[in-house]
Write a structure and sequence with these properties.
Elements (H helix, E strand, L loop, with lengths): L5 H15 L15 H8 L3 H13 L3 E4 L5 E4 L8 H9 L6 H4 L8 H10 L16 H9 L2 H8 L2 H23 L44 E2 L14 H5 L5 E7 L7 E9 L8 H5 L5 E2 L16 E2 L1 H10 L22
Antiparallel strand pairs: 1-2, 3-6, 4-5, 5-7
The structure holds iron/sulfur cluster (2 copies).
Length: 344
C-alpha cells in the first residue's frame, strides 16, 4: 500500500499555514515573511521539525527566506503554482515503485535527483542480482515513463489542498460543537436563530417528534380552519372566490340557500384536500369575509388513506377548538346595521 509519511503531512500543513497568512507573491501580505517560530505555533508542531522542513523547502526553491531579526519565510510562488507532487518530492524524494527504476536516496529528493532518476530509467546497472531477467522490470518502467504515479500528485495544487482543509476544518468544528455542547432548549428550537446567550449551545434542530413539537412562528401558514359568526353559523357565504384562486384546485364548495335574509348563500359542502394544497395562502387572501384562515399553528396530520386528508366542513370548524384558537372573528361582516352602505 502506498502511504504518505507524517513528515510530508506536516509539510503540507506548514506551507498551508504560510499561504493562509498571505505571504506569497500576489498574496494579502506579499511583502512580509512568517518566522519559523510563528509557523511552528500556527501548525502546532515541534520547532526543530519545522525549522528543518522549512530549510529543505527554501533549498529547493519552494520557499524564500529572509535572515535577520525580522527574518522568516514566504512562498516563492502562489499556492496555485505549487503542486503536491513537488512538496512530496522535497520531503520524500522522487517516488519510485521499485528500487531498480529510481535508484536514489529516498530522503534526499530534489529536482536534480528527479532528472537523475529519469535518466537512469533507460537501463542502468543495478545491484539486484535478478535485474537481467526480472519480469517486472519493464512493466514498472512503463508505469514510470507514462507518469501514471506522478500525474495525480502533480495535478493537486496547494491552494486546492488548502480549500479542502478549510472545508474539513469547518465540518470538524460543527461536528464537535454538535457532539459536545448541550442542546438548545425546546423553546429555542426553530426560533429562527439562537439568541446570543445560547450561542455556545449546539446547532442541532432535530426534535423528538411527536413528544417534542416545533414552535412555529406567529405568521406560519398551517392547517386551514373555518371561522364562525357570534351566532355559531359559518362565516363563509359560498362566494366561490377561494376555489377560483386556488392554484391546486383542492377546494370543493357546494352552496345552498341561507336561512339568513341578509346572506344569500352558505356552503352545504366545504372541503379542502390537504394533500393537494400547496399552502400558498391565496384562499385566505381572496376571502372577503374572513371565513377561512391558516393560522391554526399546526400542520396537516399525516394520513394512511388519501381520503383521510380531505378536511370536511365539520373538521375545518373543529380545528380552532383542537388548537386552542378562538373560532369567531372580530371582522364586521357586511357592515353594521341595515343601511351600512349609506355614505360609502
Ligand atoms: S392554501 Fe393555496 S393551495 Fe391551499 S387551499 Fe388555499 S389557495 Fe388552495
Ligand atoms: S372566499 Fe371565503 S366566503 Fe368565499 S367561498 Fe371561500 S371561504 Fe367562503
Amino acid at each position: 500500500m502506498l502511504r504518505i509519511s507524517k513528515k510530508a503531512d506536516y509539510a503540507v500543513f506548514l506551507l498551508g499555514a504560510i499561504a493562509r497568512q498571505g505571504a506569497f507573491p500576489g498574496g494579502a501580505a506579499s511583502d512580509s515573511v512568517v518566522s519559523a517560530h510563528e509557523i511552528a505555533k500556527l501548525a502546532g508542531l515541534n520547532k526543530s521539525v519545522v525549522a528543518n522542513l522549512l530549510k529543505d523547502f527554501a533549498r529547493h526553491g519552494v520557499l524564500e527566506s529572509t535572515r535577520g531579526l525580522k527574518g522568516g519565510y514566504r512562498l516563492a510562488r502562489p499556492p496555485a503554482q505549487i503542486s503536491l507532487g513537488e512538496i512530496l518530492e522535497v520531503v520524500e524524494g522522487r517516488f519510485t515503485l521499485v528500487d531498480c527504476i529510481g535508484g536514489h536516496d529516498a530522503n534526499e529528493g530534489s529536482s536534480r535527483l528527479l532528472a537523475q532518476a529519469r535518466s537512469q530509467q533507460s537501463g542502468r546497472n543495478h545491484d539486484c542480482s535478478l535485474i537481467s531477467f526480472c519480469p517486472s522490470k519493464n512493466p514498472m518502467r512503463v508505469v514510470h515513463e507514462r507518469g501514471m504515479v506522478h500525474q495525480c500528485s502533480d495535478s493537486a495544487r496547494l491552494d486546492e489542498l488548502l480549500s479542502t482543509a478549510t472545508g474539513l476544518g469547518i465540518t470538524i468544528k460543527h461536528f464537535a460543537k454538535n457532539l459536545f455542547l448541550p442542546r438548545k432548549s425546546e423553546k429555542q428550537l426553530g426560533a429562527g436563530g439562537a439568541p446570543p446567550e445560547v450561542s455556545w449551545r449546539n446547532d442541532i434542530e432535530t426534535i423528538q417528534y411527536p413528544e417534542e413539537k416545533v414552535q412555529y412562528p406567529e405568521r406560519f401558514r398551517g392547517l386551514h380552519r373555518l371561522m364562525m359568526r357570534d351566532d355559531g353559523s359559518v362565516r363563509c357565504v359560498a362566494c366561490m372566490c377561494c376555489p377560483t384562486v386556488c392554484p391546486a384546485h383542492c377546494i370543493t364548495i357546494i352552496p345552498e340557500q341561507s336561512d339568513d335574509n341578509g346572506i344569500e348563500k352558505r356552503p352545504a359542502v366545504f372541503e379542502i384536500d390537504e394533500l393537494r394544497c400547496v399552502v400558498c395562502g391565496l384562499c385566505v387572501e381572496a376571502c372577503p369575509c374572513d371565513a377561512i384562515r391558516m393560522d391554526s399553528g399546526t400542520h396537516a396530520k399525516p394520513v394512511e388513506e388519501r381520503a383521510d386528508a380531505v378536511m370536511t366542513k365539520d373538521k375545518l370548524i373543529a380545528v380552532s377548538k383542537d388548537n386552542g384558537k378562538s373560532p369567531t372573528s372580530i371582522a364586521t361582516q357586511g357592515g353594521a346595521g341595515a343601511n351600512w352602505r349609506d355614505g360609502r
